[in-house]
Structures are given as structure tokens and as C-alpha cells.
Amino acid sequence: MPDVVVGDAVVRALTAVGKRLLAAVAVVFGAASLGFVALQLLPGDPVDWLLGPNMTASPDLRARVRADYGFDRPVFEQYLSYLNTVLHGQLGTSYQLQQPVTTLIANQLAPTAELAVTALVLALAIAIAAAVATAGRRPRLRAGVSTAELVVTSAPQYWVGILLLTGFSFQLRVFPVAGAQTPAALVLPAITLALSIAGVLSQVLREGLEAALTQPFIVTARARGASLSAVRLRHALRHAAAPLLTLTGWLTGTLLGGVVPVETVFGRPGIGSLVLQAVTSRDMPVVMGVILLSAVVFVVISTLVDLLQLALDPRIRTNGDRP
């Protein structure tokens, strides 16, 4: 009998891993396909994007460029060739910079990762502190914090960044205006990126905490002499963490989009500035490379979130339908 139970557990685990791998392949394949379709639907001649707006080329040169880059081949053949390069870990060469896209992304990835991770940690700290302090307490304080969360969530990130720059860089001169040379230069960009995320996370966590505080296990913990703060932090917070983790994973996957205006406002190097330059100059290999990077980040974060949920909620480990 124990061997049967272990065998069933192994089958469920392998099935879950297989589903996760298929989902990951589907996400990356879908991102690559959609990026290719978007490239084909853009108006204009890709030869013009490659040569640049200020270069006048003869018909022979244009024909040579078209043949060298495969623009003269059928679209489906171009699509298969593109998928083949992606499968081999190659994302092509930048039209404007004439460097491998993988090299360009690798050179700009560290500043963006530093900003995104810092902003995510800060957002989680703000959200947990605000939710724990206001869940089920002081209706006026809760209403005030909820209003502030709504404001920072709705405000455009570039607007928040400009306000922080005006107050703390131009007037008080506490933090640098631009660049990424010192740790102080990371503070304002991280706060700008974190505030909108923290507002959403705090609202979700507060609702989960208030629902958890009405459960029978909370009454049992209180009856055993646990303080209200201990009940919130040790029992209710863990119970409410599952939806928070799910939302955090989804928001983390969207951080690459959020860093574009933030890095632009604060003059930071990174993926955001690379994407802005590529979109402006129609450097499509770079744009498609960042799209694929976003898909891979989404897959990795989703997998990590599932593993954390397994650790936090024992009920999921006994459910064969969840990984």
C-alpha cells in the first residue's frame, strides 16, 4: 500500500512537471510568434529600418541588403528561420548598432534587474506593513490608507518620478538626478516603481487578512493565549499569502514594461532605455529579443510562485490538479 501511494505521488509530480514544461514552451513560442507577426504587420520597408532614415541607397544595394537578411524570402520561410535561430539561442543582430541582440541585452540586464528586484522587495515591505497595520482596525485609518493606495496605483509612473525628482533631487538635493553610479541613485527609481505595485498588493493582502481573521483557527489561536499581533503575523498572514504570491508573480512579469518610463525619467541605463531606443529607430531584432526575455522571465517567476505556494499551503500538495 505505501508503494502504491508513493507511485501515485511520483506520477502526479511528473505530470505536474510535464504540464509546467509544456506551458513554458507554449508561452515562449507564443511570444516569439506574436513578435514575428507584429513585425510583419508594421508599415514600411525593413530595408529602410536597417539602412536608417538618413541614408540614400541605390536599388542594387537595397536588393543586396534584402537578400542578405532574407527579406526576399516567403514570410513562412522567414518565420521558420526565425524560430530556428531562437531555438539555438540566437536573437539576431541589431539593425542600428550592428551587435548581437543577446550581447546588447546582457550588457543592459544588470541595472534593470537591480532596479526591478529592489522595487519588488520595497513594494512587498510597504504592502505587508500597510495591510497588517490596517486590516480590521480603525476604519478611518483603513480608509485613508486605501485612498492613498488608490492614488499611487492610478498615478502615471513618469509623473510620480518627476515629483520625486523635483522634491528630493532638485530642491532638497538628497539624491542624484540621474545615472546609476551610486546606491543613492537607485532610491528614487525604486520608490517610483514600487509605489504602484505596493498599492495593488496591499489591497489584495488586506482583504485576505480580513477574511482570515474571521476563520475558526484564529479564534482557536486567540483562545490559546496568542496576542492579536502574533495571530496576524503567524497565522493570518500565512493564510492570506497565497493570493499575494500569485499577484506578485504576475506583477513581477510586468516589471520590464514598467522600467521603461522609470529608466527614461531618471536617466538610468538598462533594458528600458534599450527598448526605447530600439522602438524609436525601429530596431526590431532588439524589440523582439526583449519580448522573448519578458516571456522567459514570466515563465520563471510563475514557476517560483507555484513552488512557494506548495511550501506555504499544504492543501495544494495533496491536490493532484495543481503542481
TrEMBL record:
Organism (species): Nocardia macrotermitis
Entry's localization field: Cell membrane
Gene Ontology molecular functions: dipeptide transmembrane transporter activity
Family of the protein in this entry: Belongs to the binding-protein-dependent transport system permease family.
Keyword hit for Cell membrane: yes
Pfam family, one: BPD_transp_1_N
Limits of the ABC transmembrane type-1 domain: 109-309
Main location, first listed in the record: membrane
Membrane topology, record value: Multi-pass membrane protein
Protein name: Glutathione transport system permease protein GsiC
Family annotation (InterPro entries): BPD_transp_1_N, MetI-like, MetI-like_sf
CDD domains tied to this protein: TM_PBP2
Membrane-spanning segments: 21-42, 115-136, 148-172, 184-205, 242-266, 286-308
Domain of life of the native organism: Bacteria
Any one of the GO CC terms: plasma membrane
Keyword tags: Cell membrane, Membrane, Transmembrane, Transmembrane helix, Transport
